[in-house]
Design brief:
Layout (H helix, E strand, L loop, with lengths): L31 H17 L3 H8 L3 H9 L7 H10 L4 H14 L4 H9 L13 H19 L4 H17 L1 H6 L3 H16 L2 E2 L2 E2 L9 H4 L4 H18 L4 H12 L4 H8 L3 H18 L12
Antiparallel strand pairs: 1-2
Length: 302
């Protein structure tokens, strides 16, 4: 398992100034798959320095409709207008189209509707455009580790899709990732948002039940009786872990369920080693206060 020690070097990019009325927020009822491509598109628009009036003239599309598209208002947008807008904003079409297509299914659009949107627009070249070199290098370093984290919350198919979507979104937002304080932290936040949006929740807390049946302790038990006892203990632990703050939960999943060293967890999260150790220490203290008997001894740690 490998992780980057130093994030890619961010480019120099001055903040863009824009006259006119500020773009409104995305509606609360916009689904997670729709947000996956909409928020990077909004980011590209805000960074471009263009106004809705200028885009309206270039695209020959009403300014009010462009505003609605960028806020998720109204019906799910057809690919033609999404593609035309992305071209003006210099966004890569391949990851955008994959994310747009997934969101179309989430919006209950038929396969025929989706294909019709694509077939009548000269949008995608025959050979996919490759991501930037530093994006590809970063993906090679962290993709497997991201998959281990996602697996704790999602089944295998959902895990693979969540990780793939993470890197599609990063491709769309790569300039923002490079310009952020830490590319690794930016990327982790994208992964976490996707995984949590697709994780079953109970009482507002993510469920870690899937991980209970894939721990080292369970795999080593063949007798049904102790195996069921271990399942019960693991479920109690995972239920308690779900009550941890997000940063502590991430550290505990990486350290105790994925088996990463503190240094690896630090590199993945884009946080200092001291922060990882502090979060783990506070998390263990909380878990030991609510579990009786304590289930976080060395021999019982999943």
């Amino acid at each position: 398992m490998t992780t980057p020690i130093e994030p890619p070097v961010p480019p120099d990019r001055p903040p863009a100034a824009r006259p006119g009325r500020k773009l409104g927020p995305v509606l609360d009822n916009v689904g997670s798959a729709h947000r996956a491509w909409l928020e990077p598109m909004r980011g590209s628009y805000l960074a471009s320095g263009l106004t809705l009036s200028e885009l309206s003239i270039r695209l020959k599309f009403a300014k009010s409709k462009l505003s609605e598209l960028l806020r998720g208002v109204g019906l799910y947008p057809r690919w033609e207008i999404v593609y035309m807008l992305s071209t003006e904003l210099d966004m890569p079409s391949w990851p955008l189209h994959r994310l747009w297509r997934q969101a179309a299914f989430e919006a209950h659009k038929s396969g025929e509707w989706i294909e019709n949107c694509t077939d009548h627009t000269p949008i995608l070249t025959t050979v996919p455009i490759t991501p930037p070199l530093d994006h590809r290098a970063f993906r090679e370093l962290v993709e497997d580790d991201y998959g281990l984290f996602a697996r704790v919350f999602l089944n295998d198919d959902q895990r693979d899709l969540a990780v793939s979507d993470t890197f599609d979104i990063l491709w769309l937002s790569w300039n923002d990732a490079l310009a952020s304080h830490d590319t690794r932290r930016f990327s982790w936040n994208v992964l976490r948002a996707i995984v949590m949006s697709r994780t079953p929740h109970r009482d507002g807390r993510p469920e870690l039940g899937t991980a209970a049946f894939d721990t080292v302790a369970l795999q080593s038990l063949t007798d049904p009786a102790p195996r069921m006892d271990q399942v019960t203990e693991s479920m109690e632990l995972f239920t308690a872990m779900s009550r941890l703050p997000p940063n502590q939960l991430d550290v505990m999943v990486l350290r105790r369920l994925c088996g990463f060293r503190p240094e690896t967890a630090s590199a993945l999260l884009g946080t200092s080693l001291a922060t990882v150790r502090s979060d783990e220490r506070h998390a263990i203290r909380f878990l030991e206060s609510v579990l009786c008997p304590p289930l976080l001894t060395e021999g019982n740690t999943p």
